[in-house]
Amino acid sequence: xxxxxxxxxxxxxxxxxxxxxxxxxxxxxxxxxxxxxxxxxxxxxxxxxxxxxxxxxxxxxxxxxxxxxxxxxxxxxxxxxxxxxxxxxxxxxxxxxxxxxxxxxxxxxxxxxxxxxxxxxxxxxxxxxxxxxxxxxxxxxxxxxxxxxxxxxxxxxxxxxxxxxxxxxxxxxxxxxxxxxxxxxxxxxxxxxxxxxxxxxxxxxxxxxxxxxxxxxxxxxxxxxxxxxxxxxxxxxxxxxxxxxxxxxxxxxxxxxxxxxxxxxxxxxxxxxxxxxxxxxxxxxxxxxxxxxxxxxxxxxxxxxxxxxxxxxxxxxxxxxxxxxxxxxxxxxxxxxxxxxxxxxxxxxxxxxxxxxxxxxxxxxxxxxxxxxxxxxxxxxxxxxxxxxxxxxxxxxxxxxxxxxxxxxxxxxxxxxxxxxxxxxxxxxxxxxxxxxxxxxxxxxxxxxxxxxx
Length: 454
Known about the structure:
single chain; alpha+beta; Naphthalene 1,2-dioxygenase Alpha Subunit, Chain A, domain 1; 2 domains; eight-stranded mixed β-sheet; 10 helices; 18 strands; 22% strand
């Protein structure tokens, strides 16, 4: 009897080899047994994750467009640690723990800012952008043995890739290139460095961070939780690909109907909306539903030429579909030529049954004032799309409206219910199918760290 599953046939372009960035990747066997659900609520497991995973992995700390000039910094927070990421005079990027070596005071308190040096508010010790000590107030009152090592800020490893900034608290960890897992050029093709954050929301949700990741790493649930998506995107037919070190992606066809929808021919209100949101005159479209997505791709390519954007290296399906790309351990980026959804699922500092859904909407602006973000990006009206002003981060507590759209509001309630269910004596562990293979893939990598294999 064959173990072959029909999901193996869900390929966007069967003519491509696995060497192509869009090509279907070879299957990776991550087993079949369920994992103990205590991983979703145990404080002991949370502490193991901290000691063996979070302090040893490369984490996506921010985007380079947030710190364009020397002295610009951003503050990355992960549980009780805070890390300053700052642009240097030579345009490189460095990272330091946000703590003064004198008495442990925090140095900066804002999410972002600009400084030519760091000055501790406690006793006015000063440090350069490179972390080196510049001044000790009343230095003559210290015995030389106390400060002879010239205490500067403690460095955190920092590397950049394709406009993204990564940090790692482990000095012995392999370099980012060896751990990212994605093929060379995969991230670079989208030119994220030319995009700017136009909205940033951090919302507290009532679930473990891994339950958050699980919900966004498959399209299997769309028909049940988000039925409104059935007329504009395909849940069945998603291409799932697994990469080394826990990274993975799914290519989600957009601008088409789910195969679950009986009528596959008529162009209904949903598809008309998709065309209109892209600036097309839907009333002039004469094709069938299956031709809509490629008509939109053609329109995008023609519009890009007028805007001065280079889309020649993108395939037609890339122009329409979402390359929902997972970077281990806690990131998903919905990748599109005109913009990206960058989502981080951040663990709560003390409670394993809460996490922070940290989402940034990035958009590549054009000089044409008529060029707007397509409606599916969910950018509220009135938001500056030019990149001239970086919006403040919006913080949303549990139970408060986040204005993230209907689909995400549905996910909020879903995850609270799922989190409660993980405690039940009747739940023995998730039974992941092949539409959920991305979940098992990254969860296996979590266990490798927690079990001390990494």
